[in-house]
Design goal:
Layout lengths: L1 E6 L2 H11 L6 E6 L2 H5 L10 H10 L4 E4 L2 H4 L3 H7 L4 E2 L7 H4 L1 H10 L7 E4 L2 H10 L6 E5 L8 E4 L2 H15 L3 E5 L4 E10 L3 E9 L16 E4 L6 H20 L5 E11 L2 E8 L6 H5 L7 H9 L14 E8 L23 E4 L2 E4 L2 E4 L3 E9 L2 H12 L16
Helix pairs in contact: 8-9
The structure holds adenosine-5'-diphosphate (ADP) and magnesium ion.
Length: 410
């Protein structure tokens, strides 16, 4: 098979690396990829727009495309490729509303009878104010903008003043509808499935670290690290996760919205069991870099089967080993003003898997050019050992202003 992976981050590096192991593969490109991946031996093609990717795939007789980032899943890329007869592993734009509209997602969860936080959907300031006034703040209140908000659309409010501030902030930026949710208390995890429109295989679970420091109130980032599998779920929870995917996918199917692609469930384990916080219509970044190295099945074979609706009866085999993935970022991240352009000093060899994200090339050297620069994943028999190995290795890498959290996997 001649395969294109679309995207340029650590997630796409991990996906491409795993797809490269497949016996079914004859050629692989990442579009556009990044110079770090290229140095690691992955073909990168400098095409980024839907139009340019379509032309590239036609010129190069590409037989399968896998889209990483949500922005391109929500573009017309899949429709373009399928018009040309090129299978594209991603959900259609229509069903991708599962991520791009929190209201759409809530309605599906409700219809599918999947546990989720109780919600009031408000359409005007008065209505939202009344809901805030009526809440006693014995527990927080969660305000959510409906559409894509790049991690800035959710406020977990401890008191009335905060909720009123959140209301103004969110409605000024994103307008209505505004979702007002009960606050769930528990621990968060993510679960991933690979879906063919009707059937699916579970890829596994992971936990990520969203804040820039261990302080719960520090700035939100794209993700500073992850480990896989989640270590606080029971066998019963694992079965519940399976049921959550079954119910959701069946409900979509019944609505003529069959779902093909990776499906990411954001879950909260509460005292009353597992609840779905949200769905994303793609793999997570950095959860992918923790989860995918544990996959022992042929990932390309599974993806290819999914595009032909042939997943029934298949499974994804995972290593028993535990992974820890640590992300290194640029100084200043997640603020817009960052220290960029510093040369990366990389050792000749590492014992872990190195994935590149925000890097570019200057005078044939790699320099940091984005917030999240790179990450390393260690696999070991225990999380503690994987953690030690990941930190041993990331400390062998250096660039000016390099920062990473010290508590991933603790
Ligand atoms: N109902 C809820 N109860 C408690 N925390 C929540 C709730 N909804 C969201 N959160 C918190 O806010 C974060 C972001 O919410 P999420 O729905 O995942 O939106 P997004 O990832 O699109 O910003 C979650 O990871 C979780 O920590
Ligand atoms: Mg989320």
């Amino acid at each position: 098979m001649r395969v294109v992976v679309v995207g340029k981050g650590g997630r796409e590096h991990a996906l491409a690396q795993k797809i490269k192991e497949s016996n079914l593969l004859s050629e692989l490109w990442v579009c556009p990829g990044n110079p770090g991946m290229a140095k690691a031996g992955i073909n990168c093609a400098p095409v980024e727009t839907a139009e340019a990717i379509e032309a590239f795939c036609l010129e190069n007789n590409v037989s399968l495309v896998v889209i990483g980032p949500e922005a391109l899943i929500l573009s017309d890329l899949k429709a373009r490729l399928e018009m040309q007869g090129i299978p594209c592993f991603a959900p259609t734009k229509n069903v991708a509303q599962l991520e791009s509209s929190k209201l759409f997602c809530k309605n599906i969860l409700h219809d599918a009878d999947v546990p989720t936080a109780k919600v009031l959907v408000t359409h005007a300031i008065d209505e939202a104010m009344a809901a805030i006034e009526a809440h006693n703040f014995a527990s927080p209140l969660v305000l959510k903008a409906d559409g894509l908000a790049a991690g800035k659309g959710v406020w977990v409010c401890e008191n009335k003043a905060q909720a009123l501030e959140g209301l103004t902030n969110l409605t000024t930026q994103f307008g209505f509808p505004l979702l007002i949710e009960e606050c769930l208390i528990g621990k968060e995890l993510s679960a991933f499935a690979l879906c063919d429109g009707k059937d699916f295989v579970i890829l596994g679970t992971a936990c990520d670290y969203k804040r820039i420091t261990p302080d719960l109130f520090s700035a939100n980032t794209g993700g500073m690290g992850a480990f896989s599998p989640c270590d606080f779920i029971t066998q019963e929870d694992t079965e519940t996760i399976h049921q959550i995917f079954v119910k959701t996918l069946n409900c979509l199917h019944e609505k003529n919205l069959s779902y093909q692609g990776f499906l990411f469930a954001g879950l909260m384990k509460t005292a009353k069991g597992l609840y779905v916080l949200e769905y994303n219509v793609r793999m997570g970044d950095p959860e992918t870099q923790a989860l995918v190295p544990r996959i022992q099945s042929d990932l390309l074979e599974l993806i290819s089967a999914a595009t032909k609706h042939e997943l029934a009866g298949k499974q994804c085999k995972l290593s028993e080993e535990v992974s820890v993935h640590v992300v290194a970022v640029s100084k200043g991240y997640p603020e817009a003003k960052m220290l960029l352009g510093a040369e990366l000093n990389l050792p000749q060899t590492l014992n872990t898997q190195l994935y590149f994200a925000g890097v570019s090339e200057k005078d044939q050297k790699l320099v940091n050019s984005g917030g999240r620069v790179l990450g390393v994943t260690a696999l070991a028999s225990s999380k503690e050992t994987a953690r030690t190995q990941a930190y041993d290795d990331i400390q062998k890498i250096a660039y000016e202003g390099m920062y990473f959290r010290k508590d991933i996997g603790q």
